[in-house]
Amino acid sequence: MAAKIRKGDNVIVLVGKDKGKKGEVKQVFPKDNKVLVEGVNTVISHQKQTKDSAGGRISKSAPINISNIAIIDPKSDKPTRVRFETRDGKKVRVAARSGELIDG
User: Fold this and answer.
1) What's the gap between Cα 42 and its chain centre?
2) Residue-level pLDDT, tens digit, the chain, 104 residues
3) DSSP characters for 24-85?
4) Nearest-CA neighbor of 58 among 71, 48, 72, 67?
């Protein structure tokens, strides 16, 4: 099955503490239905000091549920759903809102 949201997509958060934030998908976890979005759902992790690195509080992004995000339409810059079409014999992702191609 082809994934509707892939690494490198620009997405917007629909619900939660980061509602309205935009970012790029860095990693997808299909078994857990989660994605890692840059700059969204940041959590503070305490890291112990080692001889190589200093310890302290490190801010990093945590995975967010895939149902809480939507792909940004390339034409209107608004959230959109994704549908699949066959164009020139290839299966491509298309923004449902405008009909624009999502992948090149």
Assistant:
1) 14
2) 458 999 999 999 999 999 999 999 999 999 999 999 999 999 999 999 999 988 899 999 999 999 999 999 999 999 999 999 998 999 999 999 998 998 75
3) EEEEEETTTTEEEETTSSEEEEEE---SSS--EEEEEE--EEGGGEEEEPTTT-SEE-EEEE
4) 48
Q: Do the beta carbons of residue 94 and residue 41 sit within 8 Å?
A: no
Residue 21's CB is within 10 A of a number of other CB atoms, namely 16
What is the Cα–Cα distance from 34 to 95, expressed in whole angstroms? 21
Q: Which residue has the tokens 């923004």?
A: 95
The Cα–Cα gap between 97 and 26 comes to 24
Helix (H, G, I), strand (E, B) or coil at 80: strand
Task: Locate 85 and state its tokens.
Answer: 């079409």
